[in-house]
Design brief:
Layout: H1 2-45, H2 72-81, H3 93-107, H4 111-124, H5 129-141, H6 145-158, H7 163-175, H8 179-192, H9 197-209, H10 213-226, H11 231-243, H12 247-258, H13 264-280
Helix pairs in contact: 3-4, 3-5, 4-5, 5-6, 6-7, 7-8, 8-9, 9-10, 10-11, 11-12, 12-13
Length: 281
């Protein structure tokens, strides 16, 4: 009897050990797989064509700059998540290498050399949309806006849901002072990516230039709804409200601007404006 109990105990211990080992193995496999995927995505996100941080143009509180594009794998993953998965095009490594070399030249400000390298990539893989896009950005930086638009259109021919391409076409038209075309293409970008605050900010700037202040106010307010800590939206809205003698609302927007971590010099100037407006309110 004791021998049977001993054998049963050993069997139970063995079964328990087996299940514990199995679950530990599964856990480690899933953990390491997830870590490897995250490492890959981190590496991919570092390979960009232009700095992706939001920055303004050289003009005072001007348009948010042209958008850069992260490399292919992450972009495809993002589109899968948004149910906009494009047809996957396999890009040869040599084409990717030429594109990466072009990115390095672009970062140095050697835009013509970058274009040459991007075109080398296209000679190997004509549907390489990232190279097409990067050529558009390079021509934009050279001030050749028609050429930039030509290449952004080529991107749209490959993927009609590429909101970055529509956005940059709009930016190019703005630079050409073709404001109506710029508005048209920003609205196309909004249809694809309605949550992008920078599109509404740029629309506000264009409407302001056209002296369509009601539309500018609406656009800046939408930009603020989407990203309330973007200081320039508050400042530009405050300026229009002040111009239209809506002093109470203007003061509120100037105060919101002050809360957005601006420099001391700007802070002093804006505080003076607020004090003057309070005497008129």
């Amino acid at each position: 009897m004791e021998k049977n109990l001993f054998s049963l105990t050993n069997i139970l211990i063995f079964i328990g050990f087996f299940f514990v080992s199995f679950f530990i193995s599964k856990f480690l496999t899933l953990y390491l797989s997830k870590k490897q995927i995250n490492n890959v995505l981190t590496e991919k996100e570092e390979n960009i064509s232009i700095n992706q941080d939001i920055s303004t143009d050289n003009e005072e509180r001007g348009l948010v700059r042209v958008k850069s594009k992260i490399n292919d794998l992450v972009e495809q993953e993002n589109r899968k998540l948004s149910n906009q998965e494009p047809k996957i095009i396999v890009i040869p490594e040599i084409a990717k290498k030429n594109n990466d070399l072009g990115v390095e030249e672009f970062k140095k400000g050697n835009f013509e050399k970058a274009i040459s390298l991007y075109k080398d990539a296209l000679s190997i893989s004509p549907k390489y949309h990232l190279a097409l896009y990067n050529i558009g950005n390079s021509y934009f930086e050279l001030g050749l806006y028609e050429k930039a638009i030509e290449y952004y259109y080529k991107v749209i021919e490959i993927n009609k849901n590429d909101d970055f391409a529509y956005y940059n076409i709009a930016m190019s038209y703005y630079k050409k002072e073709d404001y109506n075309s710029a508005i048209e293409y920003y609205y196309k970008a909004v249809e694809i990516s309605p949550g992008d605050f920078s599109v509404h900010y740029n629309l506000g700037k264009i409407f302001e230039n056209k002296k369509d202040y009601n539309s500018a106010i609406s656009a800046y307010k939408k930009s603020i709804d989407l990203k309330g800590d973007y200081a320039n939206s508050h400042y530009n809205l405050a300026e229009i409200l002040k111009f239209n003698k809506k002093y109470k609302e203007a003061i509120r927007e100037y105060e919101m601007y002050l809360s957005c971590n601006i420099s001391n010099k700007e802070s002093i100037e804006v505080k003076k404006i607020i004090m003057n407006l309070r005497t008129l309110n």
